[in-house]
Amino acid sequence: MAASLVDMRTRLRLGALLMALSLLPALLAGCASLNRNHQALMVLGDLSAGDGESRLKRRSEPPRREGLHYARQGRAYQADLYHPRVPSRGSLILVHGFTEQGRRDPRLVALAMTLGRVGFTVMVPELDGLRDYSISTREVEAIVDAIRHATRASPEVPPRTAVAAVSFAVGPALIAAMDEAVAHRVSFVVAVGGYYDMTDMLRYVTTGEDRGEVGRAVPPPQREARWAVLLSQLQWLEDQQDRALLETIARRGLADHAAPVSAEAQRLGGSGRALFDLVTNEDPGRVEALIGRLPPALARELEALDPSRRSLDSLQARLVLIHGPQDRVIPFSHSRRLHDALPPGQARLFEAGALQHVAVSSGWRDGWGLWRALVHVLALGEGE
């Protein structure tokens, strides 16, 4: 009897041990998930804190920044590379939006530092068109070249990298990620507050109508956005006087959207007047016709930068869409339509109330959606 009890206890212990061993992968996975959840919370706190103290800053070492110079087929580039103290999540190319400070914009530097603290090796290329508000397909080419550079180490079995972009840079970044030369080298794309349909984006910025939200109320657009759009397309005007006049108008409008501009507008030539009429139009029904009056080179560029005009079949990367529901620059509907245009499971859409277009609100307001998005990005960075 005693021997049988010992045998039973031994079998029970062995059974418990085998069960524990069988559950170990799940337990470890659970620990990894809990760790990501905690890291995402610290990332959110760090983004909300800005330059101030945060738990992430206290608990992690900052990445080391290195300046880069590289070239591709005669095209010369500059970038910053942020080396994490513990590289655990692969590489990520961070594409800046419209900012005259380019890759050294303090907000962008802070974001790169935050991502470096959680294990990403972050490359931030300098994109001239986004720095001087002259966005074009040149930026698509530059992002493709950045992907080539970031994944150049193993040409036979290329390593993969992620791409993250914000606002008006999302279109060029997404189109670059679909380029047949590098599509297989991009693991995932993070798009924050981006656009999908160029015509509808212009319609909203100029008239306030969002045709992607039929029957739903949308917030009024920021009046300054139309002047940013104007600045971004001046390079396609051949008439130097028109370009100078429109730049004066745009910069005055950015400083004060109610500033008088009629004196300069009266001196515009045909092409300059066509662009001015588009960005100052307030009739939603006229947008297509006004686009049709633009100089051919400008109209071609707008079409080339329009993801809705392209087949998305060539996108091999997974897509993470993060958008604020009250975005007053690019409506939330653009990310939803982009999500719906892709096969089920390829994209995830996160409604992030904590975002004011691309800026994180202070005080943790409505942080749940952004936290969930950050958990997903951290998991993708680990190859899940």
UniProtKB/TrEMBL annotation:
Descriptive protein name: Alpha/beta hydrolase
Natural source organism: Halomonas gemina
